[in-house]
Write a structure and sequence with these properties.
Blueprint (H helix, E strand, L loop, with lengths): L1 E4 L6 H10 L4 E6 L4 E2 L5 H4 L7 E3 L5 E3 L1 H11 L12 H21 L9 H14 L1 H7 L12 H11 L12 H11 L2 H9 L6
Parallel strand pairs: 1-2
Antiparallel strand pairs: 1-4, 2-3, 4-5
Length: 203
């Protein structure tokens, strides 16, 4: 498999999941401005959406969108327990969290990284983000991970999105449970390996 990624982008979540899974994969860096891969391919021919992540299987098929890729990866390594079993109520709970993180957090961060976003629009996005932080913070006051005691996909996705806070000036100190969560997930071996591979940490 090949994972097409850009350092620190939302593609970091399937990258961490792949390392947690123990599956064999290759990383291919994408320049999101030129839409070229590090080996000179036209990324638009691989993923017409033009953004990361994209997972290319060994048979050439591709899969886009982070939450879909995350669940595919987890289902290839069920012994790692990154996702509850398909059809179980807990699997739908996982999808609830993936949707919440994607629509209420991830998408509200997007305007903050765009130079064309007005100051008013950025303030509105920040207000929405900080309001929504209360939801996972409340859950993580009760359990160490979003689905309880078992680390999994939702935690990986939340970790990546919360990691953007430092880049846009959002202080997590009002939510101690989120800070503690970031420490737990950030110290995992797979997380550290992914961060090193993307050049986001040096040690």
């Amino acid at each position: 498999m090949k994972l097409y990624y850009s350092p620190g982008a939302c593609s970091l979540s399937p990258h961490i999941a792949l390392r947690e899974s123990g599956l064999d994969f290759e990383l291919v860096r994408v320049d999101l401005k030129t839409k070229k891969t590090a080996d000179g391919q036209d990324y638009m021919a691989i993923n017409p959406a033009g953004y990361v992540p994209c997972l290319q299987l060994d048979d050439g098929r591709t899969l886009g969108e982070g939450p879909a890729i995350l669940q595919y990866v987890a289902d290839q390594a069920p012994d790692k327990h990154l996702a509850p079993a398909n059809g179980s109520f807990e699997r739908y709970r996982l999808q609830q969290w993936l949707n919440f993180i994607g629509t209420e957090l991830h998408k509200n961060f997007s305007p903050l990284f765009m130079p064309t976003t007005s100051d008013d629009a950025k303030q509105a996005a920040l207000q929405m983000i900080t309001t929504r932080f209360a939801v996972p913070a409340r859950q993580l006051e009760q359990t160490i991970y979003l689905l309880g005691q078992q680390f999994g996909l939702a935690d990986i996705y939340l970790f990546v999105v919360l990691s953007w806070s430092g880049y846009v000036g959002v202080d997590l100190s009002p939510w101690p449970s989120l800070q503690q969560f970031m420490g737990r997930v950030g110290s995992r071996e797979a997380t550290q390996a992914a961060l090193r591979a993307e050049g986001l940490v040096t040690e």
